[in-house]
Amino acid sequence: MRSIQYLASLAAFALVFSLGAFAKETNSGSFDIGQNAKIGRTLLKPGHYKAEWTGPTNALNVKIIEHGKTVATTKGHLKELPTKSPYDAVEFRSDKTQQVDEIDFNNRAEALVLAGS
């Protein structure tokens, strides 16, 4: 009887810790660019990209990835939005430099603000 309780406890423990392996990655997000855009010093062509970031919320290291390869890096920080974004959106600076200012991700309440913004 005691071994069955031990086995059940061990199984429950393993299940709880394995759920983390299936959790959605929260330090990344996908987005599309419909025109030429600059991130840092890199000019990106229109296409589908993924942003990954590490570090503290106010001092992130950001990688932009296309087809599994890092194509740009920059610094940034997260900004809380008043409500969840209803779609992915890329905002550009207003100075006509094609520089990406902010990336909003579908159904997320935070936006990625890139360095220099």
What does this structure look like?
The chain is mainly β and 117 residues long. It has one domain. The chain has one helix at residues 2-18; strands spanning 28-33, 37-39, 42-44, 47-54, 60-66, 69-80, 89-92, 100-104, 110-114. The chain has a 7-stranded antiparallel beta sheet, with no helix packed on it. The chain has a two-stranded antiparallel sheet with strand order 2-3. β2 (37-39) and β3 form a beta hairpin. The longest helix is centred in the N-terminal third of the chain and has 17 residues, at 2-18. 16% of the residues are buried. Mean pLDDT is 84; it is low at 18-25.
Structural domain count: 1
Q: Report the biggest beta sheet as strand number plus sense, adding barrel if it closes.
A: 7 strands, antiparallel
* Strand-residue proportion: over 45%
Would you tell me the structural class of the helices and strands? Answer: mainly beta
